[in-house]
């Protein structure tokens, strides 16, 4: 064991040079594995931004092109592919402000290839199909019925296509001079699902989840396990038929991104644009709406109390969400489109729980128990970080049109019963509750374990997640409709042991979450303070009442601070020994400094406290060790100003994490001091300044009183 006083940062000479900013990101082991097992159908996710420029085009269109020319791990091939895609976009993508120039090019050349969004309509008067090109600004282009039959989505919402347009002028002014020479929707033509399943077997569960997260576009290293699963749940509507999903949360968390950019089989529409003819059927001409053609219909900006909704639309939607069908005159039609509702919240979770419910932001017509009961899962959007630049991935992920076709091919399969060999749902769960849990579980199984191979622990993890999402729906319905029967959410294992499931906000704010069970509603908060004291606002208690035992904290939980978690047991100690092998990086040293600050804020100014840190050296090179030492010296100097004598020692043999005091307490920390998720470091970001606003990683802590 070496002491900090024996080693100084200056012993290592000048720091090593930084890598050039132009150097391509180094490939991880996972990236190499992805390229080896999925050659030609994966692409580096940061390339989309490199080629997009000012083209207003969905990511799946760009990834389709990148998949053709840059699906490689060879840097020269990637660069050549980027150049090719840029040239294709420059030559063929139609910018609205250049439409006249493109039309002139078609006229002068007689034929020109364009990339544009194409929508077709039936001209009943002339009995012909006609196409309209969104950016090019031409309409009335004749389309052969065979093309419409092969690509019916041209009739509803439009499809991005690569088209050859010809020009032939006629003396007859009624004849449109534009001729559709060829049309190719931008989507994968074929794939082998057997190869996909075989390759999945070569990945661990953690690797596969990271691959899916990178395919969505995010860096998995910045997300915890629960945060990754939330991202994966957003994909369920693409892999599960007739799945009803809602996500409400703060602005800027990427709620609608997947439904506008991820798949050519999804349609994102504004909540204000919804009508019965557009969504279901136009009874005047019997034309089907969006649900008849798209796999996923997502409603953006769905929240808003003052928004008005057509009562007929709400009634038809409720029937469709429950029975997968709707009426066209006297005829009943079925459809498989999943429904997704995303919207913003304007209040914090505890505010909503105290004053209303978690559906409070919905329009009045949808704030109805009959409609809400048809939702299968509620994604807690308030747990998702606001999107920041560093959150985007530069690793490899599936080309979007490839994974979109894979997921679509699995919609007809059902994995809902795969948990039943290990677990049994509570008998008092209603049919709708059970359906919601089953569909979420089936979707997660298809996404994470499409090959059908999962351990009991892995199955339990996604079963709990599915139950939690449905419980979040049902618990809020119980606030709205008192006639609904309460439900005990959970399951039993094969031994018959009962395992209850709670939502994260239920654990964070039990006083407000269970307000209806307390006399006087919200006014009874005082009677429940002891329930939340261990997690949120506990004062420093007298020593006699200090907690002994074990506590677990869920990922994404808020309200946890060193002041409530550790300080009550450290107060009064004259010597404290912290054992944590990972005090190496800046954020880890910052955590240590925050604990020192918490100790300083509660000690008598006239007392001294000795704090000893036992950690391990950073073995990633001399430059990294130097930085570690510099951080520890800064902690030492800062602590001295508060009468805290800090020393650090290196021991490469330690693994466990604990805090021991000379007052007889031992605190065993599963994750050491590194319990918080990433914070921005922005001085104007509240989680940077106050620990109680940070989300935590999943961890456990055990308090042991070592009596003589």
Main β-sheet, spatial strand arrangement: 1-24-23-22-25-26-27-21
Label the overall shape.
globular
- N→C terminal distance: 29 Å
- Count, helices: 26
Q: Would you tell me the structural class of the helices and strands?
A: alpha+beta
The Rg value, from CA coordinates, equals 29 Å
Strand content: 15-25%
What is the makeup of the main sheet?
8 strands, mixed
Low-confidence stretches: 11-22, 517-543
Percent helix among the residues? Answer: 25-40%
Number of strands: 27
* Average of the residue pLDDT scores: 87
Structure description:
With 708 residues, the chain is of the alpha+beta class. It has 26 helices and 27 strands. It has an 8-stranded mixed sheet with strand order 1-24-23-22-25-26-27-21, with helices on one face. Strands 5-4-3-6-7 form a 5-stranded antiparallel sheet. Strands 9-12-15-8-16 form a 5-stranded parallel sheet. Residues 11-22 and 517-543 have low confidence and may be disordered.
Present the secondary structure layout:
Blueprint: E1 2-3, H1 29-37, E2 42-44, H2 47-52, H3 59-69, H4 75-92, H5 99-109, E3 111-123, E4 128-133, E5 138-143, H6 145-150, E6 159-167, E7 178-185, H7 193-200, H8 205-216, H9 225-233, H10 236-239, E8 244-249, H11 257-261, E9 266-270, H12 276-279, E10 281-282, E11 287-288, E12 296-300, H13 311-323, E13 325-328, E14 331-334, E15 338-344, H14 349-355, H15 369-372, E16 377-380, E17 396-398, H16 400-409, E18 423-425, H17 431-448, H18 456-480, E19 490-493, E20 498-500, H19 504-508, H20 510-513, H21 529-532, E21 549-553, H22 562-565, H23 567-570, E22 575-579, H24 586-602, E23 609-615, H25 622-640, E24 644-650, E25 658-661, E26 665-669, H26 686-689, E27 699-705
Helix pairs in contact: 3-4, 8-9, 17-18, 24-25
């Amino acid at each position: 064991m070496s002491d900090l006083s024996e080693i100084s940062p200056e012993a290592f000479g000048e720091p090593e040079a930084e890598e050039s900013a132009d150097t391509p990101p180094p490939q991880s082991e996972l990236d190499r594995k992805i390229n080896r097992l999925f050659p030609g159908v994966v692409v580096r996710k940061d390339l989309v931004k490199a080629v997009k420029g000012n083209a207003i085009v969905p990511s799946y269109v760009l990834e389709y092109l990148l998949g053709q020319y840059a699906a490689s791990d060879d840097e020269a091939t990637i660069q050549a592919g980027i150049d090719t895609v840029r040239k294709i976009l420059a030559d063929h993508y139609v910018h609205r402000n250049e439409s006249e120039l493109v039309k002139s090019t078609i006229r002068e050349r007689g034929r020109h290839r364009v990339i544009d969004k194409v929508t077709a309509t039936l001209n009943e008067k002339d009995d012909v199909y006609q196409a309209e090109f969104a950016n090019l600004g031409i309409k009335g282009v004749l389309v052969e019925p065979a093309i419409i039959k092969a690509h019916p989505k041209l009739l509803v919402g439009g499809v991005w296509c690569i088209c050859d347009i010809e020009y032939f002028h006629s003396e007859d002014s009624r004849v449109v001079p534009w001729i559709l020479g060829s049309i190719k929707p931008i989507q994968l033509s074929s794939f082998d699902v057997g190869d996909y399943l075989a390759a999945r077997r070569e990945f661990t569960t953690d690797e596969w989840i990271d691959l899916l997260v990178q395919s969505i576009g995010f860096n998995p290293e910045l997300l915890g396990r629960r945060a990754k699963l939330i991202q994966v749940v957003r994909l369920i509507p693409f892999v599960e038929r007739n799945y009803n999903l809602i996500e409400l949360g703060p602005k800027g968390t990427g709620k609608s991104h997947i439904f506008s950019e991820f798949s050519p089989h999804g349609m994102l529409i504004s909540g204000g644009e919804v009508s019965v003819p557009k969504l279901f059927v136009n009874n005047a001409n019997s034309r089907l709406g969006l649900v008849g053609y798209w796999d996923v219909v997502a409603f953006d900006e769905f929240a808003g109390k003052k928004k008005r909704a057509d009562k007929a639309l709400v009634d038809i939607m409720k029937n469709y969400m429950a029975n997968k069908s709707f009426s066209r005159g006297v005829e009943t039609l079925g459809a498989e489109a999943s429904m997704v509702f995303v919207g913003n919240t304007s209040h914090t979770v505890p505010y909503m729980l105290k004053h209303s419910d978690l559906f409070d932001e919905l329009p009045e017509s949808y704030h109805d128990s009959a409609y809400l009961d048809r939702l299968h899962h509620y994604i807690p959007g308030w747990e998702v970080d606001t999107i920041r630049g560093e959150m985007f991935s530069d690793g490899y992920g599936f080309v979007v049109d490839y994974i979109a076709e894979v997921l679509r091919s699995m919609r007809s399969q059902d994995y809902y019963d795969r948990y039943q060999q290990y677990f049994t749902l509570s008998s008092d769960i209603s049919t709708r509750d059970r359906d919601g849990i089953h569909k979420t579980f089936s979707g997660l199984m298809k996404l994470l374990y499409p090959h059908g191979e999962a351990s009991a622990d892995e199955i339990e993890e996604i079963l709990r997640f599915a139950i939690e999402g449905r419980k979040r729906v049902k618990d809020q319905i119980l606030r709205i409709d008192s006639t609904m029967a309460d439900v005990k959410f959970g399951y039993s294992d094969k031994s018959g042991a009962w395992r209850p499931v709670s939502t994260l906000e239920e654990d964070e704010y039990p006083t407000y979450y269970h307000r209806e069970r307390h006399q006087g509603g919200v006014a009874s908060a005082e009677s429940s303070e002891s329930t939340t004291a261990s997690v949120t606002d506990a004062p420093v208690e007298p020593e006699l009442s200090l907690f002994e035992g074990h506590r677990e904290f869920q990922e994404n939980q808020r309200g946890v601070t060193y002041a409530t978690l550790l300080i009550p047991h450290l107060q009064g100690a004259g010597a404290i020994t912290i054992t944590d092998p990972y005090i190496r990086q800046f954020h880890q040293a910052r955590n240590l400094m925050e604990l020192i600050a918490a100790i300083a804020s509660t000690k008598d100014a006239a007392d001294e406290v000795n704090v000893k840190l036992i950690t391990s050296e950073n073995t990633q090179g001399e430059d990294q060790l130097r930085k570690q030492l510099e951080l520890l010296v800064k902690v030492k100097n800062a602590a001295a100003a508060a009468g805290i004598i800090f020393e650090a020692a290196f021991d490469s043999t330690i693994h466990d994490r604990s805090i021991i005091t000379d007052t007889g307490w031992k605190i065993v920390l599963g994750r050491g001091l590194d319990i918080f998720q990433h914070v921005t470091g922005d001085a104007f970001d509240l989680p940077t300044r106050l620990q109680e606003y940070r989300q935590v990683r999943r961890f456990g802590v055990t308090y042991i009183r070592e009596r003589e």
